[in-house]
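Researcher: Let's do a round of design. I'm pasting the structure tokens now; please hold your answer until I've finished.
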């Protein structure tokens, strides 16, 4: 049997502050009904002042380590669009605060697909025998880059972190990451973006628009691309795994928008109840959304040992990706 990365622990972290649709509506002229019917979101969490992405990542990472019982990790991979600083990466600080100084540590920037990309990077480290245990964390504080006046984005995103501990194991055992599919299309870079803060903006001679510091998204185009790219990625990954769509017990998508989740399930012909969703309570938490959805489904008993699971995501870049596994017998922390 080939060496493989196996899910051995699961943890999460959510800020205490709950932000309802009514609270947002008072800021930008939207309404609870407007937000719910377009996104499926009723509330989300925002980090308190002084709370950084690394704080949530450390909390989720510590919980995943506890859940795994492994005691440590040789590498830490943090998927985030909202790092503590442009330089250095957030992962080394997270590793240090978790008592993992000396471990390999780096960030992955693939926006909402970041967690899938991070899983693939971690699986590669394990397959190459560069690590025996890798802590993979998806963490974002999108509230730090949202424009309160832009109701199309301000109503959608929330803050949070989720993590898994991967250990070296054998292909085919419960929890082993099986087939991956990853892709990108840089021609769509302007559909999901923060224009300011990088070299392109800083090296221009002319002054930039103050709103360029905020996250923007072309909603209609993103919806179309998200559904198309994830559907193709799911079908490719199922084929590589040797599964049919009817074999899937649970589809866990990046929690972008409830209408996207519903449309994707319809195109794939999935029976009701097989798509995991927690977006109504936490919103779109970007790189954290898949591990947070896994954590809630596991804690609620909706995701059980032996379930055949496919994870899929779409995000800025444009990027997309999917991976399959059979869910192991673990307890979320």
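Researcher: That's everything. Go ahead.
Model: Designed sequence:
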């Amino acid at each position: 049997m080939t060496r493989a990365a196996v899910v051995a622990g699961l943890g999460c972290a959510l800020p205490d502050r709950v932000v309802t649709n009514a609270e947002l509506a008072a800021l930008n002229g939207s309404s609870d009904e407007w937000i719910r019917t377009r996104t499926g979101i009723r509330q989300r969490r925002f980090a308190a002042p002084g709370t950084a992405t690394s704080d949530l990542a450390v909390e989720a990472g510590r919980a995943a380590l506890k859940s795994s019982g492994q005691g440590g990790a040789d590498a830490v991979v943090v998927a985030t669009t909202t790092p503590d600083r442009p330089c250095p990466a957030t992962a080394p600080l997270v590793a240090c605060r978790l008592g993992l100084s000396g471990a390999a540590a780096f960030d992955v920037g693939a926006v909402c697909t970041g967690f899938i990309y991070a899983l693939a990077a971690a699986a590669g480290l394990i397959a190459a025998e560069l690590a025996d245990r890798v802590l993979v964390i998806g963490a974002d504080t999108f509230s730090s880059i949202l424009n309160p006046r832009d109701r199309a984005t301000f109503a959608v995103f929330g803050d949070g972190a989720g993590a898994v501990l991967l250990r070296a194991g054998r292909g085919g055992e419960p929890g082993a990451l099986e087939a991956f599919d990853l892709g990108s299309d840089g021609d769509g870079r302007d559909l999901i973006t923060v224009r300011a803060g990088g070299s392109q903006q800083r090296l221009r001679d002319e002054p930039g628009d103050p709103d360029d510091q905020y996250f923007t998204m072309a909603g209609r185009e993103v919806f179309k691309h998200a559904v198309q790219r994830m559907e193709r990625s799911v079908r490719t990954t199922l084929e590589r795994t040797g599964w049919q769509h009817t074999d899937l017990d649970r589809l866990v998508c990046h929690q972008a928008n409830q209408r996207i989740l519903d449309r994707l399930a319809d195109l794939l012909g999935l029976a009701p109840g097989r798509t995991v969703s927690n977006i109504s309570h936490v919103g779109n938490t970007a790189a954290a959304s898949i591990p947070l959805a896994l954590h809630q489904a596991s804690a609620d008993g909706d995701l059980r040992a032996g379930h055949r699971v496919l994870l899929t995501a779409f995000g800025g870049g444009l990027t997309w990706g999917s991976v399959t596994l059979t869910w192991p017998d673990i307890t979320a922390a």
